[in-house]
């Protein structure tokens, strides 16, 4: 007869990944729940996966490509903006949904023992599904506009992985702090929105360089991410080697600090919840 021994997480300990793996079915269940409930009782259902990036890309095209006349690296502004929006949505949605996941599932967290870190981690399943659907639409746009990104598109899974690690680190930390401080749910979306406009999501680094601000934007990991995505998706200039290395370091640092922060705050969940 197997026994389950419940031990409190240490202050700066990593999770027991064997325990997390043993509870993988719970991860799957949470992922299924996220997918099934997300578009329930919506008028257009999963069509939102198409509508949101298309509308956002259209607005960016009108504002930045039409009114501001910003460069787009030699490709139509619409597909340029769509590529940036697709990458940004992956990043921002992970942060948004992971940060709210514990608060949204408090009833279950209170009553059933399982590795709590599974809750924020499980949001990745539905978000990656959305990304896959958006990517399918992006491939259609590539054919429509006659763009061949070349072999760099094979590196897309690498950028997706780094995006997940970078965003999930933030999401894990935010989810654990939100249990105690609900201010996080108001502050974080505002911060993410500011970060979007402070990053070359809807505009190119070429436009930034023309204004002599490249040095400032190159301090932002999202800049490195956008450069990598546009290289793979649109065949534009490759990111500098230091940007790729810095992005990998930032992603690993983010997920490590996020997990440690989650573990540290999990010790206080019982008192707060």
Automatic annotation (TrEMBL):
Location(s) in or outside the cell: Cell inner membrane; Cell membrane
Pfam families documented for this protein: ABC2_membrane
The keyword Nucleus is assigned to this record: no
Transmembrane segments: 43-68, 74-96, 117-147, 153-174, 186-205, 240-260
Keyword list, A-Z: Cell inner membrane, Cell membrane, Membrane, Transmembrane, Transmembrane helix, Transport
Main location per the UniProt record: membrane
Residue ranges annotated for the ABC transmembrane type-2 domain, each copy included: 44-265
GO terms of biological process kind: lipopolysaccharide transport
GO-annotated cellular components: plasma membrane
Membrane topology field: Multi-pass membrane protein
Molecular function per GO: ABC-type transporter activity
Cross-referenced InterPro entries: ABC2_TM (IPR013525), ABC2_TM_bact-type (IPR047817)
Similarity section: Belongs to the ABC-2 integral membrane protein family.
Classification via PANTHER family: INNER MEMBRANE TRANSPORT PERMEASE, TRANSPORT PERMEASE PROTEIN
Name of the protein described by the UniProt record: Transport permease protein
The species this protein was found in: Microbacterium kyungheense
């Amino acid at each position: 007869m197997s026994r389950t021994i419940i031990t409190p997480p240490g202050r700066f300990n990593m999770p027991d990944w064997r325990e997390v793996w043993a509870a993988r079915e719970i991860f799957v269940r949470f992922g299924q729940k996220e997918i099934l409930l997300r578009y329930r009782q919506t008028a257009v259902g999963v069509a939102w996966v198409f509508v949101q990036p298309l509308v956002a890309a259209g607005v960016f095209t009108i504002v930045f490509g039409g009114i501001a006349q910003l460069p787009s690296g030699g490709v139509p502004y619409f597909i340029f903006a769509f590529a940036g929006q697709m990458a940004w949505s992956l990043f921002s949605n992970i942060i948004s949904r992971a940060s709210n996941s514990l608060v949204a599932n408090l009833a279950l967290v209170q009553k059933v023992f399982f590795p709590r870190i599974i809750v924020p981690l499980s949001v990745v399943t539905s978000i990656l599904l959305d990304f896959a659907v958006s990517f399918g639409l992006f491939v259609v746009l590539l054919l429509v506009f006659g763009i061949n990104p070349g072999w760099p598109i094979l590196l897309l899974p690498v950028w997706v992985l780094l995006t997940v690690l970078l965003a999930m680190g933030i999401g894990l930390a935010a989810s654990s702090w939100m249990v105690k401080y609900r201010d996080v749910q108001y502050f974080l979306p505002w911060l993410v929105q500011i970060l979007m406009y402070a990053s070359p999501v809807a505009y190119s680094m070429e436009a930034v360089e023309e204004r002599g601000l490249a040095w400032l934007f190159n301090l932002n990991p999202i800049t490195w991410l956008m450069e990598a995505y546009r290289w793979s998706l649109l065949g534009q200039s490759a990111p500098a080697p230091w940007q790729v290395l810095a992005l990998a370091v930032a992603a690993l640092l983010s997920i490590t600090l996020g997990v440690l922060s989650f573990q540290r705050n999990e010790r206080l969940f019982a008192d707060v919840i």
